[in-house]
Design a protein that fits this description.
The complex is a heterodimer of chains A (about 325) and B (about 260). Chain A is an all-alpha fold. Chain A has 13 helices and no strands. Classes of the chains: A mainly alpha (about 325), B alpha/beta (about 260).
Chain lengths: ~325, ~260
């Protein structure tokens, strides 16, 4: 148990460090938010007045202390370009990105596990070979390109969904999930291929081990041997990949939101960077960092749950 | 007759030239009988045992002959029928207790598995039976063992757990494939004693495979000696010990280390 508590503490520290670095980075890079808002033709007086209201005339350390104090209270300041609190601005966009990420993750598991089991069970058969080739192909397709192909085939060709027809989860949850399936698929596909390869390798190793023979000797069917005995063992080395994939999917969803016109964190992040809207950018980066660190923490906990040999008192 | 094996031949086709590992293997076993199977590594004894247990399902292994267990033809019956016998009427324990248990499942779960597959017992009944069978294989504190993972137990304890899991449905036949080879000598003796007691109390027939003739002599009445895939000699253990017909058997007997105690 103490191991997990230590992990949680170090995760909180990591988030704090990320927050500091993010703030530092944006006070170092060139570009003036006041100019970005008023344009290069603005008078120096107007610019000075705007900097005053934005709080930009204070020193960097003073602004940092102010910002951190706000962040701890859950207040990321006011957006320069939208003139509204950042928390309010991203509150309804964050769930979209989180749901898209989780959706992709669930799809990845739901597809790769049965595929790996079928291929490992019928190792070296034609079926196995076919799955291997398909997996190699999808592995090399980046999500944004996969997204375009999916839109072309399933959206424009087969008309299974309307490209650009995003429906907010607050309007119709069912149609929201129906539309989100396609971007989630685009994100999941290359990960499915990688998860498949790793699981396949694990399963074909595990199925030759002595305990698999023991399982057969008790009267288990092949399916039960795979699902009840081999899968958990084959998953242990793959969990690390699952963690990395989850973090990667958070970043991937920001790109794919553009392809599928989804108003998530991705779109607002890009426009905010263009507008030098630092409070928004900082808040989003901190959010993403928290998501990544929390997913790593979950992976670590999952490890301990799955593999009893990991000593928890480390 | 519990088990009747006739003309069993096992061939492997995983190389260009097929390789026969067992030739014309014959074996009859009655209920409650203990038969020893002795031979060096590669003599085909483990392959014969796996075939009898219905575990030689590699598609590159070709089996001819017949194995009749309780009236069922092990080599040709549907997989469903075979699975119905495995873990219920035929059980098997293996040489390596360290790797024969699933490392990520609790002992209790593994001991109860054959009951989950073959019986309608409730979880409470299963746990009761599991603790009972763990106690009967002389494990102290069965409740703790029940909640342990394999890596928390010693080799001897794991082999006892394997025996417990194999005996949970009181099978008619227990195949023990070198169950003591990986264990300390003192633990070996205890496991042999335990198998003897199980045979006496449950009337379970045991096919005991070993390369150690002295262990076979302690446990079995009848023995088959294998070499190079052939059964070279078979019959009463004591008779073979006193008067081995084949040179190979003689050499096997001579290879048993003897403690010389005469000091005059």
């Amino acid at each position: 148990m103490t191991g997990i508590i230590k992990k949680i503490i170090s995760s909180i520290l990591t988030i704090a460090v990320v927050a500091c670095l993010v703030f530092m980075a944006f006070s170092l890079i060139p570009g003036d938010p006041a100019v970005a808002k008023l344009g290069t033709q603005a008078t120096p007086e107007k610019l000075a007045a705007l900097r005053e209201t934005m709080g930009l005339n204070k020193s960097v350390p003073a602004r940092f202390v102010e910002w951190i104090a706000g962040v701890v209270r859950g207040d990321f300041g006011t957006s320069y370009s939208y003139s509204m609190p950042v928390t309010k601005l991203i509150a309804d966009k964050l769930p979209v990105t989180v749901i898209l990420t989780l959706y992709s993750f669930i799809l990845m598991i739901a597809v790769s596990v049965p595929l790996a089991i079928v291929a490992a069970r019928y190792e070296n058969s034609a079926l196995d070979k076919t799955i291997q080739i398909l997996s190699q192909i999808t592995m090399s397709v980046p999500p944004f390109f996969g997204g375009i192909i999916i839109t072309l085939i399933f959206g424009l060709g087969l008309k299974l969904f309307a490209p650009g027809g995003y429906v907010s989860y607050s309007v119709n949850a069912g149609r929201f999930l129906g539309y989100m399936f396609w971007p989630a698929l685009a994100i999941a596909l290359p990960k499915v291929a990688m998860a498949f390869s790793l699981l396949y390798g694990g399963l074909t190793t595990e199925k030759r081990k002595d305990y698999a023979r023991t399982a057969y000797s008790r009267g288990n069917s092949t399916k039960d041997v795979f699902y009840k005995h081999l899968l958990k063992n084959a998953c242990i080395p793959v969990i690390t990949f699952f963690g990395m994939a989850l973090a990667d999917m958070i970043a991937g969803s920001i790109v794919i939101e553009q392809v599928f016109s989804i108003p998530g964190l991705g779109r607002i992040l890009l426009t905010s960077i263009q507008n030098r809207d630092y409070p928004v950018v900082e808040a989003i980066i901190v959010c993403i960092a928290v998501l990544v660190i929390v997913s790593n923490l979950l992976v670590d906990i999952l490890y301990r749950v799955i593999d009893p040999r990991i000593i928890t008192e480390d | 007759m519990l088990l009747h094996v006739e003309d069993l031949n096992i061939e492997f086709h995983d190389h260009i030239v097929p390789e026969t590992v067992v030739y014309d293997f014959d074996l009859d076993m009655d209920e409650g009988e203990i038969v020893g199977l002795v031979g060096e590594s590669g003599s085909g004894k483990s392959m014969s045992a796996l075939a009898i247990a219905g575990l030689l399902s590699r598609h590159d292994a070709k089996k001819r002959g017949s194995i009749i267990f309780m009236g069922e033809d092990i080599l040709n019956c549907p997989r469903e029928t075979l699975r119905g016998l495995q873990g219920d009427e035929i059980s098997m324990i293996f040489q390596e207790p360290m790797t024969s248990l699933n490392p990520v499942k609790k002992i209790g779960w593994q001991v109860e598995e054959a009951m989950r597959i073959h019986t309608d017992k409730t979880p409470e009944e299963r746990k009761k039976r599991a603790l009972e069978v763990l106690r009967s294989v002389e494990l102290n504190d069965p409740e703790r063992v029940y909640n342990s993972y394999p890596h928390q137990l010693s080799g001897g304890m794991r082999q006892r757990v394997m025996i417990a899991a194999a005996m949970v449905n009181t099978p008619k036949l227990l195949i023990a494939d070198e169950p003591t080879t990986a264990l300390d000598v003192t633990v070996q003796a205890e496991v042999v004693k335990l198998l003897k007691r199980i045979n006496r109390e449950e009337n379970t027939a045991i096919l005991f495979i070993s390369h150690d003739l002295s262990l076979i002599r302690q446990l079995c009445k009848r023995v088959l000696v294998m070499k190079g895939g052939y059964v070279v000699e078979s019959g009463d253990v004591e008779k073979i010990f006193v008067n081995p017909e084949k040179d190979y058997t003689k050499r096997l007997i001579d290879s048993i280390p003897k403690v010389i105690l005469d000091r005059d």
